[in-house]
Structures are given as C-alpha cells and as structure tokens.
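Chain and backbone:
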Amino acid sequence: MAKTKAELKAALMAELEQEIDRLLEWESQTPIVTLTDIETRVLAQRLRLSERIATELTQARADRLETAFQTQATRGARPRDKGKKLGQ
C-alpha cells in the first residue's frame, strides 16, 4: 500500500531528527573537533539521507504507478495503441 504524503514526510523528518541528534551527540562527546571532522561527518550523513529520500520517493512513485495500473485493469480498460509494428 502506498504511503500518504504526510506519512512519508513524517518518516523522513523523524529520520532526519535522529541523524541530527547523533551528530550533536558526537560533537559534544568528542574533545577535539576540527572543521574537517565536522565536514566529513556532515557530508556522510547528507549522503545517507539523500539516498534514503531518493529510495522513498522512488518507492512511492512505483506504488502509485502500480495502483494506477491495477485500476485500469479492474475497469476493463482496453490497452493503448502502441503504434504500428515494423515489417507488416
């Protein structure tokens, strides 16, 4: 079943909040932090979050398309014309 926009947003926001909490906890527990350390951590977390968002959006799109195709099939809709075939 496809997630609603609000459910998807809530899940992604919760994950983002957890990542921020981890980053802040790491920063407070580490005695010496350089700008390079901070940049490395932030970029790594950004990559993980970007991949997660892309995965969720791709899955949401696939779920919506799957639902749309099922709706046409249950209606008894005729297949669309896909053009002339070569060689006939």
